[in-house]
Amino acid sequence: MPTPADAPGDGRLPIRSEPDIVLARQQVRRLTQALKFSLVDQTKMITAASELSRNTLIYGGGGDMVWKLVHQGVRSGLRLDFIDQGPGIPDLDLALKDGWTSGNGMGMGLSGSKRLVNDFEIDTGPGRGTRVSITRWK
């Protein structure tokens, strides 16, 4: 069950169709505004979330965006996990290269998202789905 969009804290949003990508962007905007991210940092996180939501839908067959407000010492941030049960990424090194695409995209999804955030992790493998975790610190 999705968490209400205006709820603080942690939550989950299903990504099952194109309109869910828009909802994911809107939720990330609300969260980054609540954390008082600069406009530039808001835009970076929203852009990364948009790219990864689209990947979750198109290549993973749908999944979830999970968010968590995180703290490390005196700093706070936003962690987003994009989780699917799709076919996984067979060649992660290739998928992370700028300009590479397995479809009709521009090839900026994973590599572009990685550049927009402070922390980027990916766990994937053929037949076991993909989990991409990104964090932006304030």
UniProtKB/TrEMBL annotation:
UniProt cross-references to Pfam families, sorted A to Z: HATPase_c
Native organism taxonomy: Bacteria, Pseudomonadati, Pseudomonadota, Betaproteobacteria, Burkholderiales
Protein's name in the database: Anti-sigma regulatory factor
Histidine kinase/HSP90-like ATPase domain sequence ranges: 41-135
Taxonomy, superkingdom: Bacteria
